[in-house]
Amino acid sequence: MAAPGDPAARRRRVVAFSALAAAAAGLGLAVGSAGGGGDEDRGEPKAIRPPAKAKPKKPVDKLSLERQVGQLLVMSFDETEPPDYIRRRLRAEQGTGVVIFDKNTPDPESAAILTQELQREAGGDALVATDQEGGTIRSIPSAEPESAQASIETPDEASTSSLAGAQDLKEAGVNVNLAPVADVAADSASVVAGRAYPGEADTVAPIVEAAVRAYSDERVGATVKHFPGLGLATENTDDVSVAIAATADDLRELELPSFEAAVDADVPLVMVSHALYPDLDADRIASQSPKVIEDLLREELGFGGVVVTDSLEAQAVLDRSDASEAAVRSVEAGVDLILMTGSGSWNLVYPALMKRAKEDEKFRARVRESAARVLSLKKRLGLKAPR
Questions:
Q1: What is the distance between the alpha carbons of residues 169 and 176, in angstroms, rounded to a whole number?
Q2: CA torsion, points 322, 350, 381, 238, in degrees to nearest 10?
Q3: pLDDT: is 307 or 387 the higher one?
Q4: Model's pTM, two decimal places?
Q5: In which region does residue 208 sit, left (phi positive, over 0), alpha (psi from -120 to 50) or beta (all else)?
Q6: Are the CB atoms for 349 and 327 separated by under 8 Å?
Q7: Separation in Å, CA 233 to CA 187, 191, 257
Q8: Which of these ranges, 136-145, 246-255, 306-315, has the smallest mean pLDDT?
Q9: Residue 108 falls within a domain, yes or no?
Q10: Which of 147, 260, 332, 354 has the fewest CB atoms nearer than 10 Å to its CB?
């Protein structure tokens, strides 16, 4: 061991210290370089990024399952004032709105009073629908169109008539019309003869398109019906089961052009029929068939709006099942709105949909998808967002 005052020992300590300092400096430089900072960054604390903000919830995800199921149900009643059970369901959002008929609105003033009451109970977000085709099918007798569709022969006439009708309905507080008929009547024996626009598919298509655009201009939702077409039917699905013996190609040629024109015009709703189309689906009526709703209407025609059933209480439906099972089948198939024209149907349908949604994750997702479409429709019509 060297003595404490030995010069050689002192030199060795200086060399060792210098080497250590150089190594430390080099390490610091390397770390600084890896961090991308220069001299001005050394010794300064690194900025800490705040956590990413959670994405805002979609409107549908603000709704409980009970309220999502409610978005799928259009109710009805027999009185001229909303009964207590309708008021309760609207307040609880266990129904998305109502369909009103002439029995509910016996005079011109009553329609606006009734719809104001309905919106007050619903907080301003109720769909209020009616069936105002014109001619003999006018659920609000004081409102246009007065003329039947069969008397309208050009797009200009359809635009004028539909615009007047939309303005009257809007004044009455109605935001969805279950019209126009887009079926093409095959002949005078057709169940829609007198209700449909006259002519063949290439003539009817631009007339339907003009009607749809006129309703949209007034922010009233037009509903083209009865997909994929009832022009070849001779009986009404309200009264009996109906099967239409047309091939898929026949339907594409004779019926679908008017629905395609409506989709091109951004129609907000399509009503699907309760008839059976064996060449499309041999087992299920159109309102319960994913082949008709998902494959043909959504995939082939590109429709992204709301699909609504014809009346759930139609005989063509009840011949196959009760209303509750029919509603479940329709939602499974891709329907977004169940149209209930019987005042007691909600008592069967709502519990059935809730039960299935709680038990079946896939069905629950299907309910959410439809509820989201209905909320988008309400936004388009200028209704209030969910509470």
A1: 8
A2: 10
A3: 307
A4: 0.85
A5: alpha
A6: yes
A7: 10, 6, 17
A8: 136-145
A9: yes
A10: 147
Round the average pLDDT of the chain to a whole number and report it.
Answer: 89
At position 49, the amino acid (one-letter code) is: R
Q: Which residue has the tokens 């009404």?
A: 236
Please give the pLDDT value at position 70: 98
Is residue 35 domain-resident? no
Q: What CATH number should be reported for the domain holding residue 239? A: 3.20.20.300
pLDDT at 194 over 90: yes
- Look up residue 300 and give its amino acid: E
Distance CA 174, CA 112 (A): 8
- The range of the structural domain enclosing residue 178 comes to 64-380
Contacts by 288-296, CB closer than 8 A, 24 or more apart: 288/326, 288/329, 288/330, 288/332, 288/333, 289/333, 290/332, 290/333, 290/334, 292/227, 292/228, 292/333, 293/333, 293/334, 293/335, 294/333, 294/334, 296/228
- For residue 2, tell me if it sits in a domain: no
Q: Tally the domains of the chain.
A: 1
Residue 266 lies in a domain: yes
Q: Burial-class residue 21 by CB neighbours within 10 Å (0-12, 13-18, 19+).
A: exposed
Percent of the chain beyond pLDDT 90?
Answer: 79
Please name the residue that has the structure tokens 């129904």: 95
**Under 8 Å between Cβ of 183 and 136:** no
